[in-house]
């Protein structure tokens, strides 16, 4: 519970502490047990995004949230910078962030945290939870589209959710980066049972995936629905602006159902906002609260695909964006 001690100083939670406290498996379990109970009391307005002139395509993003549940008396604000040129030019993350936690009883600041790392865990594990609820239980192949800082976390989260995965194929616009990540993850002693490969042509590898996870800043559709495997689970994570799209309309059209953890996904995520304005028939869309009904189904119908997406802020099913799951 939040402390009312007027002399309390806010603590700082560093990246090393977050790594020590969290694992992808434990965070997925935590989300599965708490989100269905607490999500109705969480209030998360649309993010504030402000373009910056300091660097091309850079932006400052403000993400407030607060709880009205008595067991969770907190207010939180995530302050995010998006500098997409960082990775290639400076070897820095393109997305960096700080999280500030306040008491909702007194307004006191309680803590700040390195939200760059926190976001990687949270985003990936919401995808992991979505996969656990929606992907096929017999999934063997994961295709990872993108090889940035989020990709290793997404891979680990999907492996935690579906331990039967035997092969991970990584694709990136830069084949060298995809190969480097595949080699690095293949050296992890804890992942020796998994085969890591890289692919140079996305259309050739995406159809192999029982699960396809995307974490890119692409403004052009990457995943084409006609290439998706029947029954695949499509996890869309990177799109957080109306100009961003990671899949084409055919992928959405093939989805047996689309899940979102928040209706804001339809406003903020480019894959959805434009389609909705065009009158897309959202008969299959469902919110986070409906995930509970997916428990125990082993990912839904065997012959349909499902889609889950997060749009950067809350991805599709698990991050506050949308997810398609299972394609026909």
Secondary structure layout plus pairing:
Layout: E1 11-13, H1 15-21, H2 24-38, E2 42-43, E3 48-51, E4 59-67, E5 74-82, H3 86-90, E6 95-103, E7 109-114, H4 115-134, E8 141-145, H5 151-161, E9 167-171, H6 175-186, E10 195-199, H7 202-205, E11 211-214, E12 233-236, H8 249-254, E13 255-260, H9 265-268, H10 270-277, E14 285-286, E15 305-309, E16 315-316, E17 320-327
Parallel strand pairs: 1-7, 8-9, 8-11, 9-10, 11-12, 12-15, 13-14, 13-15, 16-17
Antiparallel strand pairs: 2-4, 3-4, 4-5, 5-6, 6-7, 13-17, 15-17
List low-confidence stretches: 282-304, 310-324
C-alpha geometry: globular
- Round the mean pLDDT to the nearest integer and report it: 80
Global structural class:
alpha/beta
What oligomeric state do the depicted chains represent? single chain
How can the largest sheet be summarized? 10 strands, mixed
Beta-strand content:
25-35%
Percent in helix? 25-40%
Number of helices: 10
The separation of the N and C termini measures 46 Å
- Count of DSSP E strands? 17
Radius of gyration: 19 Å
Secondary-structure element pattern, one letter each? EHHEEEEHEEHEHEHEHEEHEHHEEEE
